[in-house]
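Input.
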Amino acid sequence: MHHIVMRNMKFYGYHGCLDFEKENGQWFIITVDIACPFLPGSVTDELNGTINYADAFERIKKIATEYKFNLIEKLASEIGRCILKNYSLASEVTVTVHKPNAPVDGEFECMETSINLKRHNAIISFGSNMGDREEIIRNALSILNDRDDVSIKRISSLYETEPVGYENQADFLNGVAVIETILEPLDFLHVLQKIELELHRVRTIKNGPRTIDLDVLEFDEIKSYCEELILPHPRMHERAFVLVPMKELGLYDSDIPGGKEVRFYKEFGML
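Output.
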């Protein structure tokens, strides 16, 4: 692992909860540690094989000096997200913000926050059984991939399946996609739910018809049991319409359970 460390950069910014902090400003000291699994420049000695720290410095300076945040935690988060968005060689970044003149009555060297952000890998399933199913799926994945904090790496073919649970509805088109994102699990889930709403997903009948269904199946190797998001998806191993496209992408190597027939529909040529 290579590290590029930009230590103790000093910027005059206007961050703080109090009005006078946003009006008068103060000095902030920022350290950014960028971790990269491999830097080609370490072999080629070429600038395009590393992260240009002069360019990174200007991006950090812009955030620190031109924006106003209530919290230094938010400042650190925005800097970290900027690094991961703009430098594909970076897999992880740690940002530390020092606030030497924090408005606290007492003796101290500084108030400080530190945040670590990294790239995550997720697997999602998608399905539709209303309207132009393929076009709706294509639109949903395009909206997702157009975000600067999400990148679709692979998409399975499309498969057609009879409905499960509530059967008085049209057949579904289903598939899975492999995602890279700098979002945390719940933030990523909320992005998917927002896309569902944008494409007029309505939840009236359990397991009923839907324009688009986007589910998080796995997120890194995280195991989560919170009410809003259980990881891995608790029913994915019961659903052939999920496991068949996962097997196509080499993401599942066990036997596929019986149940509704999963029919190959067509290759999906989005990427």
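The mean pLDDT is 93.
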